[in-house]
Amino acid sequence: MGLRDDVAKVLISEETLRARVAELGQAINATYTDADCPFLVCVLKGAFMFLADLTRNLEMRHEVDFMEISSYGTGTMSSGVVRILLDLEQNIEGRHVLIVEDIIDTGRTLDYITRNLQTRNPASLRVCTLLSKPSRREIDVPLDFVGFEVPDEFVVGYGLDFAEEYRNLPFIGVLKEEVYADSE
Ligand code: IMP
Ligand code: MG
C-alpha cells in the first residue's frame, strides 16, 4: 500500500547520494572563493532536496534563489513546452551563477534556462546537476558538475517526482511498470 511498494529497484542509495553530494560540494568549494560569492539558482521543484544538502557542504559565502520551469506534463513524456512559472527574485548581473538541477534528460530545459540567464549578463554561468541521462540528450549542454550518469529509465526520489509524488523517497529509484502504466 505504501509509497515504497511502488518501487521496483533502488538505483542510488541514500548513503551513496550523501557521499557524492559531499564530493560535489568539495569540487564547488575548489571552484569559487568568498569574493566570488556564487549565486546558486535552484531549479524547482526537482532540485530542492539536492540544493538543501549541497549548500550545507559549501564553505564559501554564497546566496540561493529559486526558479521554476515547466517542461513536462504529469507523466514521463515531455510536453515540449518550456516556460517560466517562477522567476528569480534577485538580479544576477555581474554575479557568478551556478545552476543547480536535478536531472538533465533531453537538455531542452537547461538549454532554455542557460540562454535566458545569459541575457541577464552574469559574470560566469556554470551548471551542477545531480543526475544526467546522456543517452537521451537532444541538445548538447555543457555540464560543469555531475553527480551520477543514469540509464534511460524514469527515476524518482530525492526530489524527483512522478506525477508530483515520490519526491520524499530518500534514494533514487525506479517504479514498477504498472505504476507508470496506470497513469497513461
Ligand atoms: P529535459 O528538458 O528533457 O532535459 O528534462 C529536464 C526535466 O525533466 C528535469 O529537470 C526533470 O524535472 C524532468 N525529468 C527528466 N527525466 C526525469 C526522470 O527520470 N525522473 C523525473 N523527472 C525527470
Ligand atoms: Mg528539473
Q: Biggest sheet: strands side by side, in what order?
A: 4-3-2-5-6-7
List of distinct ligands in this structure: inosinic acid, magnesium ion
Element string (H = helix, E = strand): EHEHEEEHEEEEH
- How many beta-strand elements? 9
Helicity level, as a percent range?
10-25%
Strand content: 25-35%
Evaluate the radius of gyration.
16 Å
Based on secondary structure, the structural category is alpha/beta
Count of helix runs:
4
Intertermini distance: 20 Å
Mean pLDDT: 94
User: Which term fits the overall shape?
Assistant: globular
For the report, how would you describe the main beta sheet?
Answer: 6 strands, mixed
Low-confidence region ranges: none
Task: Walk me through what this model shows.
The chain has 184 residues and is of the alpha/beta class. Helices cover 22% and strands 33% of the residues. The protein has four helices and nine strands. The protein has helices at 14-29, 48-55, 108-118, 177-182, and strands spanning 7-12, 39-44, 63-72, 78-86, 96-104, 124-132, 145-149, 155-156, 172-175. It has a six-stranded mixed sheet with strand order 4-3-2-5-6-7, with helices on both faces. Strands 1-9-8 form a three-stranded antiparallel sheet. Helix 3 links the parallel strand 5 (96-104) and strand 6. It is globular and about 50 Å long. The model has no long low-confidence stretch (mean pLDDT 94).
